[in-house]
Amino acid sequence: MKKEWSMIATWRMAGDAVKLGGEILENNGKCQDAVEKAIMQVEDYPFYKSVGYGGLPNEDCEVELDAAFMDGKTLSIGAIAGIKDFKNPVSIARKLSEDRFNIFLVGAGAEAYAHKNGFVRQNMLTERAKKTWEKRKQEIYEKNLSPYDGHDTVCMIAKDKEGDMAVATSTSGLFMKKRGRVGDSPVSGSGFYVDNEIGGAAATGLGEDIMKGCLSYEVVQRMKNGQSPMEAAQDAVTEFSEKLKKLRGTAGAISVIALNNTGEWGIGTNVEFTFAAVSCDKYAAVYRAIPDENNVVTIEELSQEAMEEYKRSIQEPLK
Length: 319
Known about the structure:
single chain; alpha+beta; Glutamine Phosphoribosylpyrophosphate, subunit 1, domain 1; 9 helices; nine-stranded mixed sheet; hydrolase activity, acting on carbon-nitrogen (but not peptide) bonds, in linear amides; Peptidase_T2; four-stranded antiparallel sheet; N(4)-(Beta-N-acetylglucosaminyl)-L-asparaginase
């Protein structure tokens, strides 16, 4: 059954933001505004440590941010990578999508563009994120650990009452990454893709592996060929994970959200994964997806108590 409007996002950190996006869509707002405003809310919250303000830094203790925006009606894309000291990278990416040329900017070029267009300059490294970095640095030295830990991108896809669709992503990338490293999040076809005539998809997880399969575009094409969002996303993730294991011996964490042009959503994942969704006929909720050894995924709604405990835990003082 076709839904008037619908929205899906990665991770439980998007729970409140999806409510905001749903309100915009319910009040005849556009999908482009819904995904941008909702992601801005996640970017601005300092306790979400993989996105925006408070995002975890690279190996040099610098917060480098990546973001992207795509309009399903026109296929317009804007993307930035490795930008430092600017608030709300998703909004910079959306602004870029209005241009015909130069739609993907990185580093100093992205920062110059943001400055010229009046975006807010802000130090994105919080004291909490710095302490987390210092603690990790010490653990790496003392315990000989791998430095890389944490790579949760916030991704959102929305369909509005006019049938238009949009997708956006935002992340601080892999914690302790090398300076200049860029994952899948701002890369069209890998981190995101949307087409009004079919639907959209977006990915989170280990970007180095997601990019090897161009998974967001793959999921959209599977929906074009008749698969439901759930079938398309899970089959794509499972098949590609198995291929990586066969060719390389291992597959990183990969999760994909999908939304078709009738407003039906689905997810695919090879790890336990949380996501949020809302639609005209279903209240905003956060879900946990748990795949078994046969890649069959069980989805359960998280309780209000579980969400409150999550919010308490991310705000606890660092030891």
